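Hi R.,

Here's the chain you asked about this morning:
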Amino acid sequence: MAAKYAKSNPNAPYTRGAAITPHDTNLIDETDAISVGAAGTVVSLMNGVATTLTLPAGIHKLAITRVTTASTATGLVALYL
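And the predicted structure, written out as tokens:
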């Protein structure tokens, strides 16, 4: 019940995080957001589609399942509700 509420509440806090190690084939659990430590590109898999995003440092609400080694942003952390 709490997780369902958290996903429907835009102000819900993230309850766990995990460092993202870019990899070209490994998948990660779909994120609720990612934290970017240093700005750059994030080459990711979103809904099964390869997507390149240029992101500033900060927290970005993105549902991704892979970050590839072509990414230049650093200090990436997967955040989950």
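The beta strands are 16-19, 33-36, 40-46, 49-55, 58-60, 66-67, 77-80.

Let me know if you need anything else.
M.
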